[in-house]
Write a structure and sequence with these properties.
7-stranded mixed beta sheet, globular, Glucose Oxidase, domain 3, 599 residues, 19% strand, 14 helices, single chain, 24 strands
Length: 599
């Protein structure tokens, strides 16, 4: 787990309209369960039609004005916190029974409110697969790139103080999400050692690339990050879409309001229809249930909580629901399956005292100076996520190496992936991923490597019929023989680079004495990028509807048919923009049909 100091900062932010926890009654056109990226995009876009009434219910709090959320350098304090669902996965076979944490956003903005703001889109072939699997042509790269463009604007330092290809045509000038390449005063102090180590690697030298324009493989410097350049604050879904939605008279947004059940009309058992939801005050176990009705229910609760809510409501595999005592509404075997994530291994090392890390910020003198710089210039280490990496690399393992990695592993999956998709991603952060090395005496940094196209998939299941009980999440870390072999290779490659990079003073983990099994058990973690658990083409049809159920759609990272090749949050914005257009288009067609039928 990432370890961070507790800091006290004040960053002024404007207060925008927001409804506190409250009871609500009446009918809505759309009831949205979840106020993360997708839910807020949908609330904003669907409410552009003044005839649409929208209710959005979010279990987490409103973070407006909290510097813990708005200040990039404090992002590590959000895992765990009141702003996160603090899940753990079930014991993992490949990790000798370890149970890594899997924190997810529980706040307006969802994951975009607690993540490390890395902005990436990755290989275009992933989106082409989305389109093919789902039957939604707008998800193909050549089409969805317009949704990426419309959702985000871009800041590039002029002149650019480092080597980095940047394709500005895949951003707009007025997209609501602010994306910035690092200014010189925001670049990680761990540069340029890692950058040069990858560029000059004698085994497989990296090539620079822009991973926001459909390119899947390459080396990036300077982020980019979802940081607003003008004030150095986090740019996320609540400020980008939520403020706008909350200001509209036809939108009601409630925080502290947890949806616990979807209600159905089952008068025709073969064709159940969602008619509304039950919700409770999120942090009050004695809270009475409030029921609201809607013409449509849209679940946007994330890759863990979306399938969890469907299962609690009777939508899922019949045998599982029967086993936990949930009455079946619709047998939907794919709900809760197909879970994929970006799982990582890491090495931890100490760095010179002159480099600012999370632990060095515990020094009050250092912190005061950085606070002054931040307030004066909106720059410096406090405007850098984490402090996070300014270098990010994705690479493909050569075919010959894949075939030789493990004679017992079937590498056909990795060999068959489209050529623009990497197998591994490398990054680093100015903090220790293990608590024992988080002290100021270590001044530790972590470099890590993740599988970005894992073969094995996991599941989300219920532990009981009660919404109060945590779900059973089986992430299946390195779950196939091929996954395990590629992960071993990636860790070896990472250690080769970090041990040659000049920046490291001494290696703290893994060191020379741990066995491979101990390394996997002690350090394996996640990028917190779970996807695919209510996937398009599997559980959902081309209208984002749960197959065989009327009035019920799912739009969020759980709908991804395939995992992206880098950080996922930018792709949720684009997916939600497409979904809003699909849903809005259906509404227009229905209205036109009613009009024509009356002529």
């Amino acid at each position: 787990m990432m370890m961070w100091p507790t800091l006290s900062l004040f960053v002024s932010t404007a207060v925008f309209p927001c409804l506190a926890q409250a009871s609500s009654g009446g009918d809505y056109d759309f009831v949205i369960a979840g106020g993360g990226i997708a839910g807020l995009v949908l609330a904003d876009r669907l409410s552009e039609n003044p005839n649409h009434s929208v209710l959005l219910l979010e279990a987490g709090p409103d973070p407006t004005g909290d510097p813990l959320v708005s200040t990039p350098a404090l992002s590590g304090q959000l895992w765990p916190s009141k702003y996160s669902w603090n899940f753990t996965v079930v014991p993992q076979t490949r990790l000798s029974g370890a149970t890594p944490a899997l924190h997810q956003g529980r706040v307006f903005g969802g994951g975009s409110g607690i993540n490390f703001m890395a902005y990436c889109r990755g290989a275009k072939s992933v989106f082409d697969e989305w389109a093919e699997v789902s039957g939604i042509e707008d998800l193909a790269w050549d089409n969805i790139v317009q949704d990426f463009r419309n959702s985000a604007n871009l800041y590039v330092p002029d002149p650019l103080p480092y080597e980095q290809p940047i394709n500005t045509t895949v951003f707009s000038e007025d997209g609501p999400v602010f994306v910035s390449y690092d200014r010189p005063d925001r670049l990680s102090q761990l540069e340029p050692d890692f950058w040069n180590a990858w560029l000059n690697d004698p085994y497989q030298p990296a090539k620079t690339a822009d991973l926001t324009d459909g390119t899947g493989i390459g080396l990036v410097k300077g982020g980019p990050h979802a940081v607003r350049n003008s004030n150095g604050t986090r740019s996320y879904a609540w400020t980008a879409y939520g403020y706008r939605a909350a200001s509209k008279p036809n939108v009601k947004i409630l925080h502290g309001s947890r949806v616990v059940k979807i209600n159905f009309d089952t008068s025709d058992p073969a064709s159940p229809r969602a008619v509304g939801v039950d919700y409770v005050a999120a942090d009050d176990d004695t809270s009475p249930i409030t029921t609201v009705t809607g013409n449509e229910v849209i679940v946007s609760a994330g890759a863990i909580n979306s399938p969890r809510l469907l299962l609690l409501s009777g939508i899922g595999p019949q045998a599982h629901l029967s086993a936990v005592g949930v009455p079946l509404v619709k047998d939907s075997p794919e709900v809760g399956s197909n879970l994929r994530d970006h799982h990582m291994l890491a090495t931890i090392f100490s760095v010179p005292p002159s480099i600012v890390t999370a632990s060095s910020l515990s020094n009050s003198t250092v912190l005061s100076a950085l606070e002054a710089e931040y307030h004066a210039t909106a720059g410096g280490p406090l405007s850098e996520p984490g402090p996070q990496s300014s270098t990010f690399l994705t690479e493909r393992v050569p075919d010959a190496v894949l075939r030789a990695l493990d004679p017992g592993a079937n590498m056909s999956y990795y060999l068959s992936l489209p050529a623009d998709r990497p197998h591994l991603a490398y990054q680093y952060a100015g903090t220790s991923f293990l608590a024992e090395y988080a002290g100021a005496e270590y001044n530790a940094a972590t470099a890590f490597v993740a599988l970005v196209q894992p073969e094995a998939s996991g599941t989300v299941r219920l532990s009981s019929a009660s919404y109060r009980d945590a779900p059973l999440i089986d992430s299946r870390y390195f779950g196939s023989d091929a996954d395990y072999a590629v992960a071993r290779y990636g860790l070896g490659r990472l250690l080769g680079v970090t041990r040659s990079a000049r920046v490291g003073v001494r290696e703290l983990f893994p060191g020379p004495n741990r066995t491979e099994a101990q390394v996997f058990r002690d350090i394996a973690q996640t990028f917190h990028h779970p996807v695919g658990t209510v996937a398009l083409g599997r559980a959902l049809d081309s209208g984002f509807r749960v197959k065989g159920v009327g009035g019920l759609r799912v739009v969020d990272s759980s709908a991804f048919p395939a995992i992206t090749t880098c950080h996922t949050h930018a792709s949720v914005y684009a997916l939600a923009e497409v979904a809003a257009r699909v849903i809005g288009g259906e509404d227009k067609r229905r209205a036109r049909g009613r009009k024509e039928g009356g002529l």
